[in-house]
Specification:
The protein has helices at 2-12, 21-24, 34-55, 62-82, 88-91, 94-114, 120-139, 148-165, 171-185, 195-208, 213-233, 243-265, 271-291, 293-299, 304-310, 314-331, 340-356, 364-370, 378-387. The radius of gyration is 21 Å and the shape is globular. Helix 13 runs parallel beside helix 17 (340-356). The protein is mainly alpha-helical.
Length: 393
């Protein structure tokens, strides 16, 4: 509760004016010239068309599905070698980049081995969490390692989040599922009733058996906190939820999610670092809410971003998010500071891109002020969004 209040206070203290730090720190946020934007757009268009063509194949045999997945993974690795958007090669040493690619491949192989029926978008969901973890590993100065705890934790997302978010599932069924997870985390005997519960229990076992004693207890408590936050997030689908409650749920859910990534990344836990990763998790939750604002509005879900849009102050909230990102990451001193600049730049850029991908919610003048710092033109982003099925990211 104390940490939630601290994060809330920090958030509310952020300026809501346009982030002039973009203009004042051109070494981190250079204005991207039209020629470079065109190169970026050509590469992304080529990669997107190749992936979409392969996804339309829908192979029937297990062998063909595995072969297709491996092709997609190789396409992704080739894209990382060529892209100048994240530009990983300029931030990472060759050894660090090789380790990142090696462990990412190891992670994806293990994801497929656990559940061959996962759809590409579900695998991407696991990969997004793994990338957050991999960034934390590097900032903590630890060697990249895609081991059972982070594999299992990342795999939980396609099962738990999607189940909780599915409007076709009754509230009673969701509550039973969450009670089953809570009992498992508390060390109680659990009898799975269906394949979903069986897979969930297997994943929780993969996490808990990797730790003993006080460390296992801390991991279990962190996962229980996240479970409670996810359970509370069901209230965001209601019409009577208040803005204060939405903020509290957003802080709770986002912060506990990334804190767990941190606990898996290193076992040398420090209070100062935990505090930062709690704030970092809230930051990423807000980015997700901004990315999903169109879908959440359509579904009637209430997030900080949908509420800001309803009150016609969305631009001010995006500005506040950008300032929050700038101030909190810049003031953090990780064990390995080499990648802090990359994390800072990437987190600011993903917020800018999330706004630019939802252009209908912003004034043209605001979007034009953001455009110089985007790796793509606004026209290209609008075109790309139309190519994404059902607006899903």
């Amino acid at each position: 509760m104390e940490q939630t209040l601290t994060i809330r206070t920090t958030w509310e203290e952020q300026p809501d004016r346009f982030p002039e730090f973009l203009q004042e720190n051109t070494d981190i946020f250079p204005m991207i010239k039209a020629g470079q934007k065109k190169e970026n757009e050509s590469l992304v268009q080529e990669f997107t068309q190749k992936v979409q063509k392969k996804l339309r194949q829908k192979p029937k045999s297990k062998e063909a599905r595995n072969a297709l997945t491996q092709e997609l993974e190789q396409d992704f690795m080739n894209f990382l070698d060529r892209e100048q958007i994240l530009y990983l090669s300029s931030w990472m040493s060759p050894q660090l980049l090789d380790a990142f690619k090696r462990e990412t491949k190891h992670f994806l192989d293990d994801v497929r081995a656990f559940d061959e029926e996962l759809r590409p978008e579900q695998i991407w969901q696991t990969l997004r969490n793994y990338f957050i973890y991999a960034m934390i590993v590097d900032m903590q100065g630890v060697e990249q390692h895609a081991e059972d705890p982070i594999l299992a934790y990342s795999l939980l997302y396609p099962y738990t989040d999607n189940y909780i978010d599915d409007a076709r599932i009754t509230r009673q069924e969701k509550e039973h599922y969450n009670r089953m997870i809570a009992a498992k985390l508390k060390g109680e005997s659990v009898l799975p009733r269906n394949p979903l519960e069986e897979k969930t229990c297997r994943l929780l076992d993969m996490i808990l058996t990797a730790y003993i004693g006080p460390k296992q207890k801390k991991i279990s408590e962190s996962l229980l906190q996240l479970l409670e936050a996810q359970t509370c997030s069901i209230r965001q689908q209601k019409t009577d939820v208040t803005e204060d409650q939405i903020l509290e749920i957003s802080i709770w859910k986002g912060s506990s999610s990334v804190l767990t990534d941190y606990l898996f990344a290193t076992e040398d836990w420090k209070e100062y670092e935990e505090t930062f990763y709690l704030k970092f998790g809230f930051l990423l939750q807000l980015v997700d809410d901004l990315q999903d604002i169109e879908e959440d509005n359509a579904a009637g879900n209430h997030t900080l971003m949908t509420e800001a849009d309803r009150h016609q102050c969305l631009e001010r909230y995006v500005n506040r998010l950008l300032w929050f990102t700038w101030n909190e990451i810049r003031s953090f001193e990780p064990v390995n500071p080499a990648l802090k600049g990359f994390v800072l730049k990437h987190c600011v850029e993903i917020s800018l891109l999330s706004a630019a991908m939802n252009q209908q919610f912003f004034a043209n003048s605001y979007l034009r002020a953001l455009e110089p710092y985007l790796p793509f033109s606004l026209d290209f982003l609008q075109k790309i969004k139309k190519q994404i099925p059902h607006g899903k990211k």
